[in-house]
């Protein structure tokens, strides 16, 4: 059984090659058969039943679609209260009825509800260095939840139960379409006879994975039996993001904060514009892509997680306690005099130099016992435990 925390960087890369998921990512369709056993630990119906009961997700996080349209909420939910707050409560018998009638259930943010899916999403984020989210899609019969469509983000689809029929048509009339775009007349690719072009067609079975790039049209239908799959979606940095960062940097420029000379003479307005353009070009030339991406990585968010009681108690964790590295992307650790510095989720940490070997070891291995961490860091167990205790208070590690 595959560890969900290495599903993409390990198992999938071993099958299709790392190049397919890095340098060729977002440009080509990818299919891989990992085998049902490789995804068995991700999600089962027992897991899903427990999540629906314990987390009680409500619309729009949980929603139903049928034949390309949303199912009205009053067909499967009712008004209720929780902690004196009004909310929508899913009625189990109504949900069953709609699913039997061919509705497709969508549950967003599975990575925040179910640790194995969260571990797989984190692994994908380390591979792509972009934020990712996992959504669940569940359907019975031969119906479809959505019409032929394209997504404004890249997707990796993992079939976990049953089968589903896919037609991937390829990129449409607008290369690299975006969610917030100036042209929404994006149409699917067609063959000479006017029919939809097809890049790949097949039935996904448990353990099979496909990558559908952003903007690629696809048609998905049931096969007559149950289908449950996870869609891992991620949005990659574009030139728009680089330009947006450049624009934000203009607040530091006096010439750009100054009022435009609306009522000045035409020659003075032309001169002012020339000065703005010249400075903008100069700043753009200095706006290095590597520096932009490094700064973007430094703002990469952490998952919400807690490490009680160790982050509060005065006691240090025992040698057998498990230590887990919190940052999804391993941050560069820099020397600043007698201290080491790192930036996580946009916050700069300056820590004693004694933490450096411990940070390096836990960033590489991600999860170790205190004793194992001490051995790999080359420090005494007692010293390692004190460092772990301090790191937990900064939400850099979790202690289990």
From TrEMBL:
Keywords: Iron, Metal-binding
PROSITE patterns for this protein: JMJC (PS51184)
Record InterPro entries: JmjC_dom, NO66-like
Protein name: JmjC domain-containing protein
Basic and acidic residues bias (residue ranges): 178-192
SUPFAM superfamilies: Clavaminate synthase-like
Chain residue ranges for the region called Disordered: 63-83, 167-192
PANTHER family: MINA53 MYC INDUCED NUCLEAR ANTIGEN, RIBOSOMAL OXYGENASE 1
Pfam families in the record: JmjC_2 (PF08007)
Positions of the JmjC domain: 103-251
Keyword Metal-binding: yes
Cofactors demanded by this protein: Fe(2+)
